[in-house]
DNA sequence: GATTGACTATTTTGTTCATTTAGTCATTTC
DNA sequence: GAAATGACTAAATGAACAAAATAGTCAATC
């Protein structure tokens, strides 16, 4: 039985359910059916355990997005597919939501750090895709970094902020809005 | 001498300097050279005094935006001018900065309420402009509320969030980006 | 009748002390 | 003897209480 994996799974479960701060190492040990000391043979401390989980999450997200990417399709279409994948992914992963909330309303430093890391990873991924879309002439010339930033902010605004005062938007609506605002433009 | 006005001015000064929570009614009374009881002959309580100040601020913001509106220019040029005026206003005004900070890092309920009220006022203003732009056929048919929301979020992201990790964008750059993303679209 | 500031009830803040928790390490287990 | 463990410690957190500050009142004053 892979003890390290057991620990990671237990910690992921607890972080997803209760957040970073409210997860104790005793709890993780108990959940993993492992002595607390064992955790410290694999991870230097709580934050490093957390970091490993997040790094894995980032890798999983990237490969989920990548697997939905089809170079024979248009950039536009690929953004749709990647968006759908990430949206599905997000629903499955309680963890991201929990952490986003904890970062915002408690400002737990370890969580803030990790969210920044995630944001940077996502921005770099989008940026890379934007660069190749410009190269292949699929979209207009634009600043890739700024464009990635705008796309992510729009996404976050639609997913998290809009829900605060309105009915949540479903996958199709979000994809449609992206198309309307970012790709086609409002001008007649 | 208009005692009510003196109170409002003193309170505005103190809110701007110290924020809502750190402003005491004793302080306001002293600053206004007025007995504390006098404040309560004009305002039911601290929050109502605060509300009156903010309502005035919102009115001032609206008229600042309105004054920058030029019907001979295109819709998107006007939207940009109006939004920029509002955000510039917000930045210049010590009070809004202080309140923005207090809302974000202390979450003072009265401040949060008021910030929401401000955001709603801005959103309604944009929405109204979007509605008439759709009617006059200047932009495509779209959900005015969602469009106002997206525009405001994009502006805030470009003006406040982008600066956290990059060189600030100037007025012209922001205007161009807004046109590029929202109005023209990225598609070729 | 308007104004006031001493007064009160409530909230906020500071402090102490008990509990919880991250991380260690001597002991146990296989 | 290497890996695993959980009782242990130092540090962080939070509960409980006391003290201070503050919003709002109201009888006295102008």
TrEMBL record, chains A, B:
Domain of life (superkingdom): Bacteria
GO molecular function: DNA binding
Ranges of the DNA-binding region feature: 24-43
Protein name, per record: TetR/AcrR family transcriptional regulator
Alphabetical keyword list: DNA-binding, Repressor
Listed InterPro entries: DNA-bd_HTH_TetR-type_CS (IPR023772), Homeodomain-like_sf (IPR009057), HTH-type_Tx_Regulator (IPR050624), HTH_TetR (IPR001647), Tet_transcr_reg_TetR-rel_C_sf (IPR036271)
The UniProt record lists the keyword Membrane: no
Residues covered by the HTH tetR-type domain: 1-61
Keyword Translocase in record: no
């Amino acid at each position: 039985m892979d003890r390290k994996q057991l620990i990671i799974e237990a910690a992921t479960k607890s972080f997803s359910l209760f957040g970073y701060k409210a997860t104790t190492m005793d709890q993780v040990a108990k959940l993993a059916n492992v002595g607390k000391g064992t955790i410290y043979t694999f991870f230097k401390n709580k934050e490093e355990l957390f970091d490993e989980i997040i790094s894995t999450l980032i890798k999983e997200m990237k490969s989920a997005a990548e697997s939905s990417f089809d170079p024979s399709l248009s950039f536009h279409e690929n953004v749709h597919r990647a968006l759908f994948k990430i949206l599905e992914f997000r629903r499955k992963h309680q963890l991201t939501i929990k952490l986003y909330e904890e970062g915002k309303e408690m400002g737990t430093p370890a969580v803030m750090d990790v969210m920044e890391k995630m944001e940077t990873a996502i921005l770099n991924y989008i940026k890379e895709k934007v660069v190749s879309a410009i190269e292949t002439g699929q979209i207009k010339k634009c600043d890739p970094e700024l464009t990635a930033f705008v796309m992510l902010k729009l996404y976050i605004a639609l997913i998290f902020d809009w829900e605060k005062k309105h009915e949540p938007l479903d996958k199709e609506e979000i994809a449609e809005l992206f198309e309307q605002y970012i790709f086609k433009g409002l001008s007649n």
